[in-house]
């Protein structure tokens, strides 16, 4: 293959992982590396990207260095899910989650890319256009010529519309939160009645990330803030000394999954720029890392056209199904109560049901096969809890 230059716009998890995999595959640290170059353009090196920073067990399993280096992150085992009316389900994760500050995580991933031989360029890319068979990128600090461009600029990147249609407002969740200077070992999630979103408190090494997300159209920012303040007051999270954050989170609707376009002639989208986020939970770091890796592998094989199909097969199809299930999860009713209320009810009483929830959180249960497993878990839960819950259920004044 003739020497190629890959330009990656954005040095978050998606861009950094694309770069590391490419640089490693081409052996850029070796003398005979074929003259290839991998350039990562990042405008805000070392920034604290608004994020919970939670990495599921699935991510830690695939990327063990993230578990090994969590000297700089927090490993969390204890979790509590709180139903809209306040009932709670506490459980211990069989495999811990890691929670990172994003400055630490991004720094770690970019350093690995650099050590593998990628070049990190501190610049903002303002625009790009075709030049011969490649691209000319216009940066604040200068122009760059590359053969293939990877957009890894996150959900807000305006460059996205140069490749594909913009996301629609229904493809986002709004988020708002605080970095609270406090310590805790408990991960807490609060659900709401008829509301597509949730509030969270994620412990990090020297503070907590406490925030809320809600699908666009559910609530205005003021409403989200109000819900979060009630959650914080109830559980004693103090916002007086806390730094505020707010950002968009991709949560593609069913139609957008159907129209997903990830690559074309000489370009590809990865991570949030591609919309690759779990539309129910908001987990995006794993999919950013993994999409970057899948793209890099396809580029190393000189078959970038295989990238979209591989994403779809490996996790796109499951996330698209998640978009279908999101409405049922947040709005649906089961045995006369909201699904999140029932999940907490059953989870608090039944070990089998709790296992399903644990697996979802750990990432070992995909949305494919979830329905069947839930029904199975439910049957076992009813057997385990005896008729108690059913009796209570039928005594409440509601329709089934
Ligand atoms: C409030 C909130 C909480 C979240 N919590 C979690 C969580 O707990 N766990 C989880 O898995 N996911 C979470 N997510 C999702 C997660 O943050 C994203 O999915 C993940 O960061 C995507 O990585 P990325 O590399 O695609 O994009 P980003 O992390 O957004 O990185 C994009 C990078 O590109 C750079 N950039 C953009 N444009 C340019 C340009 N023109 N030139 C140069 N550089 C550019 C930006 O500076 C940025 O560093 C959360 C998101 C939000 C908003």
What does this structure look like?
α1 runs parallel beside α4. This protein has helices spanning 13-25, 57-62, 64-68, 102-116, 221-235, 254-258, 285-300, 307-331, 339-349, 351-362, 370-385, 388-395; strands spanning 5-9, 37-42, 54-55, 74-82, 88-99, 119-122, 125-131, 134-139, 143-146, 148-151, 172-180, 186-191, 197-203, 208-215, 243-250, 263-264, 267-269, 333-334, 337-338. It folds into three domains: 5-48 and 103-167 and 254-322, FAD/NAD(P)-binding domain; 169-250, D-Amino Acid Oxidase, subunit A, domain 2 (D-Amino Acid Oxidase, Chain A, domain 2, 2-Layer Sandwich), CATH 3.30.9.10; 329-395, no CATH class. It is α/β, with parallel strands linked by helices. The termini are far apart. The protein contains twelve helices and 19 strands. The structure holds flavin-adenine dinucleotide. Flavin-adenine dinucleotide is lined by residues 9-15, 41-44, 49-54, 124-125, 152-154, 157, 159, 175, 211, 247, 249, 271-273, 277, 282-286, 288.
């Amino acid at each position: 293959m003739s020497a190629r230059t890959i330009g990656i716009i954005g040095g978050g998890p998606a861009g950094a992982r694309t770069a590391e995999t490419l640089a490693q595959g081409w052996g850029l640290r070796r003398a005979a590396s074929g003259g290839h170059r991998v350039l990562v353009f990042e405008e805000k090196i070392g920034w604290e990207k608004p994020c919970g920073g939670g990495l599921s067990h699935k991510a830690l399993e695939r990327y063990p260095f993230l578990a090994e280096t969590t000297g700089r992150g927090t490993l969390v085992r204890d979790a509590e899910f709180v139903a809209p009316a306040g009932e709670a389900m506490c459980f211990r994760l069989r495999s811990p989650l890691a929670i990172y500050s994003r400055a630490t995580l991004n720094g770690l991933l970019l350093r690995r890319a650099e050590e593998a031989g990628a070049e990190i360029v501190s610049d903002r890319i303002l625009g790009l256009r075709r030049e011969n068979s490649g691209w000319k990128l216009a940066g604040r600090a200068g122009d760059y010529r590359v053969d293939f461009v990877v957009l890894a600029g996150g959900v807000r990147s305006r460059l996205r519309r140069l490749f594909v249609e913009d996301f629609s407002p229904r493809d986002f969740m709004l988020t708002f939160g605080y970095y609270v200077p406090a310590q805790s070992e408990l991960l807490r999630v609060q659900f709401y009645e008829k509301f597509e979103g949730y509030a969270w408190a994620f412990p990090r090494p020297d503070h907590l990330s406490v925030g809320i997300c809600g699908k666009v159209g559910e609530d205005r920012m003021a409403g989200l803030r109000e819900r979060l303040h009630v959650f914080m007051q109830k559980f004693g999270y103090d916002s007086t000394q806390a730094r505020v954050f707010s950002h968009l989170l991709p949560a593609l609707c069913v139609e957008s999954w159907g129209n997903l376009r990830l690559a074309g002639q000489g370009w590809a989208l990865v991570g949030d720029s591609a919309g690759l986020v779990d539309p129910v939970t908001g987990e995006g770091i794993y999919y950013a890392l993994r999409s970057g890796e899948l793209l890099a592998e396809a580029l190393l094989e000189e078959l970038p056209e295989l990238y979209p199909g591989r994403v779809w097969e490996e996790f796109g199809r499951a996330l698209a199904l998640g978009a279908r299930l999101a409405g049922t999860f947040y709005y649906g009713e089961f045995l006369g109560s909201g699904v999140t209320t029932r999940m907490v009810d059953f989870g608090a009483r039944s070990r089998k049901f709790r296992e399903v929830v644990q697996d979802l959180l750990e990432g070992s249960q995909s949305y494919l096969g979830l329905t069947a497993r839930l029904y199975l878990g439910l049957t076992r839960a009813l057997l385990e809890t005896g008729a108690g819950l059913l009796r209570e259920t039928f005594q409440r004044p509601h329709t089934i």
